[in-house]
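Continuing the batch. This is chain 6 of the set; chains 1 through 5 are on the previous pages. Same settings as before, nothing changed between runs. Recording input and output for traceability.
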Amino acid sequence: MIIAAAVAAGVFIGGKLNFSATPEKLFSSNTSKDKLNRLIDYIDYEYVDDVDVDSIVDVTVNNILENLDPHSVYIPSEEEKRVAENMQGDFVGVGIRFDMINDTLTVVRTLEGGPSIAAGIKAGDRILMADNDTLYGKNLRNTQIITRLKGTENTSVKLKIYRKSTDEELFIDLKRAKVPIKSVVAHYMLTDDLGYIKINRFAETTYEEFEEALNNLQAKGARHLALDLRNNPGGILDVTRDIADEFLEDGKLILFTKNKKGEVEKYYATEEGNFESGEVYVLMNEKSASASEIIAGALQDNDKGVIVGRRSFGKGLVQRPMPLGDGSVVRLTISRYYTPTGRSIQRSYKDGNKDYFDEYYDRFKSGELQSMDSIKVADSLKFKTPKGKIVYGGGGIIPDVFVPLTSSPEELSLERGLRTKIVGYIDDFVFNKLETDRAQYADISEEEFMQNFTITDELLKEYTNYLSEMRGQRIYIEKYAPQMKRHIKATYIEQLYGTNGYQQQLNEGDKMIEKVIELHGN
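Output for chain 6:
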């Protein structure tokens, strides 16, 4: 029986062997995959110089994905945790926003929902040590500091703190906990019955944040809503569906997806909607993508609400994160999504990734960002909503009400450069101003501050002198004085009260918001 079993095994294995192949390939089930594995092994074991094989693998994976589509991407293991935290909507740490001021870790603001507030940490505190690690005088990078402050949930960290306002050293024990990373960055009332909500991405916690903001606005009398999705790159599909469901009646189609096998999955609104009767204005621009476009397309195709702004980015592909076994992940495109009328809004990527992501400049050159009449649409991509409104597929969501871009790409590039060189220093400047006397703001409410605090010409000049003397930046910013004053005041608000008032201040004079208020008043 033993001999018979051995003969049978030999016949079975022999039948599987490829005798026309070289000896190295006899046991290979896929020669293409095997070729890549063998090449990496040869480099690892035989190449004359030491080579970082991991970096070769990373380059190889990226090169493969570049030949698929612009949104299938590789995320190395060292970046995956940060990306995952961003999508989860929280991280585990002590809950502070900090800056290195005079080579000392300084608390700029304690974060809402984090453990630092309950532990008694205050803005202006200098954190000198975390357990046995010294956090000053070492020219530490932010990543090094974050590593020392983050950790496992419920683990303790002992902080040595110097509080300048009282000239004392404190020792504070706190337990690390989850700290929210807000995706609903602002909500407030624009008029007596028109609320405003800004979402900067769609993470796991976004729907809960949105629901809380919406309930808060409704309690203040909001019967209509401006939903700001400008510069929102998208996020989690299920969260997007839940938010769209808030506005659509039971049974309305939100979107459907189709994979390479032709399998279709449809997503419908439920009876859970909490804002089905209110008017909705969706603010979009050329950087609103993916999940943002799903919401705009679902509302537009169901004859619900008004899309205000400019044509959106044009991403109609759905990705799924797939682990590669070493902590790294590939976000692979697995299907296309379509709006309720059957539109695909994915724009072409046949000319490569660079041209795909640089299309913004083509839009400007064609005049599209200044005039809706310059948007090129094909009659073959024409669709009709249930009430007969004409909508188009291919290359993004075209707004119902157009609001032009007032700056050129060159001006925007200059402004971005100014932000990097100038606005980036506003945090430090405002922090130092507050440090002179934080107590004077202790009894002033956020609303009172926003109404009464003014950035004077003298304060702006003080800031320009700070740029020149402390930062070596000699830039004439008279042309940008209104924007600079708005940014400085917004930074005061952010450091004293948080992000909600910060965004509200930055929205002062915003053309799209002014258009929404105008439409609402008519």
